[in-house]
Structure formats: structure tokens, C-alpha cells
Amino acid sequence: MRLDMNEVEAVCSDLYVRALKILPPDIKAGFKELVGAETGETAKAVLGTMVENIAVAERTNNILCQDTGIPIYNVTIGRGVDFDGAELKAAIRRGCERSTKENSLRSSVVHPITRKNDQTSCGVRVPIIHVDFDERQETVAIEMIPKGSGSENGSFLQMLLPSDGINAAKRFVIDRVIELGGRVCPPTIVGVGLGGTSDLCMHLAKMAATRPLRSVCSDPEGARIEAELSRAVNELGIGPQGLGGRSTSFAVHVEIAATHITQNPVAVNIQCHSARRATATITPGGIAFS
Q1: pLDDT tens-digit series, residues 152-193
Q2: Is residue 107's pLDDT more than 90?
Q3: Where is the signal peptide (predicted)?
Q4: CA torsion, ordered 270, 263, 197, 148, to nearest 10 deg
Q5: Cβ-count burial of 261 within 10 angstroms (0-12 exposed, 13-18 middle, 19+ buried)?
Q6: Cis peptide before 240 (omega within 30 of 0)
């Protein structure tokens, strides 16, 4: 299969709008679960308002949050796909720019020094593009995640010592959730990275934060820790929007990587309740959105 870059551009443009306007079904189901488990009246009322806001945005074809975020495209390419890497990156960027202009989206991307905004949602090394490969035949999956600033500011990295042990890593996660309180628009998905190098650990945390709800870490020890932390976080009493209650987080997700014998890295990246993402799968049979 030869990858059509005009098709990629159109898909990436469409994905940006879909991600901003349609909340994934797993997050909606997560809200229902939190409402059912919540015992605080204020927390229940706040959750109800959030659910209604989501419904109104979708009924009126409006974006779920005014923050259009830093655009991230995760591309997974299967076997038997013929493509030019440089052309692929250019097509994704064009799609991002096109979506911003054609849909009158607020561009949230600026130069880090001059703060100049080109009104394209693009800039130096943005959109962020990750490319990976899998064994599916003639398949390309493109996931779009608009990562808002409120949740992205809830990012932390600590290079612990091996002697500190896993309990120190768990304390680090809990302390960061307490520190942030309502500033990350809970209920959240708390992404945790364990291992790797400093940059990989931070990337793992973001992968974890943007994973679908009910998904489980593929490593048994990682799965055990994310279950422990999920229970612990909702005992903190922070609650939705920091106003109290048990609904602080939909879940804590953990991703791991092997690390150096003298290192014990831990990273946190938190996703707000508007956990937006959209995916398109391109095959010889056509394009499917989810």
C-alpha cells in the first residue's frame, strides 16, 4: 500500500476537529462510574455539570474546551506500507495548519522566547509527531491528542535512587496529585512513567495519561502499582474541580521501561477530565475513524 499524503493531510485535519469536539466513549463511561460511586452532594453536582457541558458541546457542535492544546500526532505504521518519512511529517503539519484555519480554531502555540503566535497551531517542532511500527498488514493508524496547558502543567520528573525503592516513587505520585489539587481540572487520568532515561520516563507518563480507561499496564508489576495508586488517589478528598469528594481521578495509569542499574526515574503527567483524542485507521479498504 502506497500512503497517499493528500489523504494523510485530510485525515490529520479532520482528526484535530474530532478530538476537540467528541469526547471518547470510555471517558463518558468513566463519568458514569464516578457519579455512581460518589457520596458527596457537592461532588455529584459538579460531576453532573461537567456531564451536561459535554452533552451541550456535542449537541451544538462546539469544542469541549477552549484550549485547543499542543497538537500531538501518534502514527503507527504496519507492514507493507510504502511511504516517504519527510513527506509524511509535512502532510501531518499541513493537516494541522489547515484544520486550525478552516475551522477558526484558537491557536495555542507560540514561540517560547518571543511568544509570537502564527495562528496555525504549529511552530518549531510542533505539531509533535511520534512514529512507531507494528505487525498489521497495510495499515496506518493516526491518533491525534490535543494536550491542554492546564493538564500539561501538571508534569513532573524525579530521578530517584535505586535505594529509595518503589515506595518513594509512589509517594512522589501522591504528593504531586496533592500539590496540584484542583488546578488540573479533576477528575483526571494520572499518567505515571517508571524507568528509562529522563526523557523516556516523561514520555511514558504522557503515554499513560492518554491511554483509554480500563486499559491495563502490560507489565504485571506496573498493573499492580497502578491499581494501588488508583485507590489511593481517590482517598485524598480532592474531588472534581478540587471541591471535595472521592472523584479525584478516573484512574492512575502506569507505563514502564527498563532503566540503568543506578537509576530509579519516576515521572507524572496528568490529563484533565476533558481527555480528548481521536484516531483514524487507513487501509486499502478506506479510512475508519474512532
Answers
A1: 999 999 999 999 999 999 999 999 999 999 999 999 999 999
A2: yes
A3: none
A4: 10
A5: exposed
A6: no
Q: What is the mean pLDDT of residues 204-232?
A: 97
User: Distance between CA 126 and CA 154 in Å, rounded?
Assistant: 20
- Could you tell me which CATH number the domain at 149-271 has? 3.30.1330
Rounded Cα distance between 139 and 131, Å, is: 13
What are the domain boundaries of the chain? 5-20+64-147+276-289, 149-271
Distance (Å, whole) CA 205 – CA 265: 11
Rounded-to-integer distance, Cα 35 and Cα 109, Å: 35
Q: Which residue has the cell 483526571?
A: 188
Q: For residue 54, what is its C-alpha cell? A: 459535554
Check whether the bond before 187 is cis (ω within 30° of 0): yes
State which amino acid sits at residue 267: A
